[in-house]
Amino acid sequence: MIKKVVLAYSGGLDTSVILQWLAETYRCEVVTFTADIGQGEELEPARAKARALGVKEIYIDDLKEEFVRDFVFPMFRANALYEGEYLLGTSIARPLIAKRLCEIADETGADAISHGATGKGNDQVRFELSAYALRPDIRVIAPWREWDLGSRESLLAYARLHRIPVEAQSGTKPPYSMDANLLHISYEGGVLEDPWVEPEEPMWRMTVSPERAADEPRYVELGFERGDPVVLDGQRLAPGAMLAALNRVAGPHGIGRLDLVENRYVGMKSRGCYETPGGTLLLKAHRAIESLTLDREVAHLKDELMPRYASLIYNGYWFSPERRMLQEMIDASQVRVNGVVRLKLYKGNVIVVGRRSDTDSLFDPSIATFEDDAGAYDQRDAGGFIKLNALRMRIAARRDPCRSERGSE
Q: Do 378 and 347 lie in a common domain?
């Protein structure tokens, strides 16, 4: 028997209906939790709506700093990209929200948690895998998998029946489904469900188009300590402030837009559009400072493991033992990732134009130079190196002297 549920609550149509539906279906008390992770919206209306619907325990928590410090920055130490392009802005927020849901459940003595993710999407998996990893005995209620309210019209009818105050009761459907936080904004649904249709320019909110971007380039210097950005143009910033500042810098230069058809974990393909301006700068700069400070084989091993790490985040396994194990290895690689990167921003492009590390650079100009290296490198050594690496191919060629690249006829 469910006595109390903690609901991830935004105050919008879906979660307002869910609030009433939970109380009616399970005859339980509902606690609401609204996370401020930098979505840029006024959250106090959610408190007012929850109170108007009779909620006694209302949580609105500012999680921006924790979000960037403990989730976004660790992910960027890995240079994580899902399917080679997606910077995982929605994916990385879900484990934090699930974590806080479980904490509030403990604080309030709740038996269950609930979310508004649909049965078609990835978020249901991310919320629930995270919750079970943190609190194995928690009950999760996913209304979209239980009720018979299968459309926006049915939700509006339910809201009218129960006198639930929601916007847009006229039935006008918004053009896109959006999710925003300090790292990104995602857009799905509506006209975007046709992967041939180009998004309309007014859709984008964090960036201008490259055509409308500033005509003069902007130079940015980003300082790193142990793989995390800590200084922007000489000013030391906390993680949340750093990401917000990078967004402000990159957006006016048309940086960070992505139009992607991705493979959801539940099995279907989905078209989404994303804006991640600050994250795009951060990824480019982080790889640049790693190019200077990471050992070659360490860097290559990180690149080999990155797709697996990114898939773990996308699929909801942030709190899994394998992600934690990979994170320990990644963090160990970042101890000497210290220095400054200079970027040039222009018309949608991020160009690395300088990098330096006064303490941890592995770049030795006396060896790398095309000029006289004063004996720092003996070029004759390369002959033996090449012959040893060619040995297996030479042996194979003696065995099969007539073999061509296309194979024997």
A: no
Residue 110 lies in a domain: yes
123 is catalytic: yes
**Mean pLDDT, consecutive 10-residue segments, the chain of 409 residues?**
95 92 95 95 90 95 98 98 97 98 98 94 96 97 92 90 72 74 95 95 96 96 98 98 98 98 94 97 98 98 98 98 98 98 98 97 85 79 93 92 62
Q: Is the pTM for the entire model greater than 0.85? A: yes
Rounded CA gap, 330 and 75, in Å? Answer: 9
Residue 38 in tokens: 């930098």
Question: Do the beta carbons of residue 79 and residue 286 sit within 8 Å?
Answer: yes
Question: CB burial class (10 A; 0-12, 13-18, 19+) of residue 175?
Answer: middle
What does the block give as tokens for 134? 């943190």
Q: Catalytic pick from 10, 16, 77, 94?
A: 94
Q: Which of 77, 91, 114, 123 is catalytic?
A: 123
Please pick, among 61, 70, 177, 264, the residue that the annotation labels catalytic: 177
User: Of the residues 14, 91, 257, 271, which is catalytic?
Assistant: 14
Q: Are 258 and 166 in contact (CB under 8 A)?
A: no
34-50 in b/e form (b: 16+ CB < 10 A) is bbbbbbeeeeeebbebb
In a domain, 312, yes or no: no
Kindly state the greatest CA–CA separation across the chain: 86
CA dist list (Å): 199 to 183, 336, 352: 20, 42, 29
Compute the half-sphere exposure of residue 24: CA atoms within 13 Å on the CB side of its CA.
13
Residue 117 belongs to domain spanning? 4-161
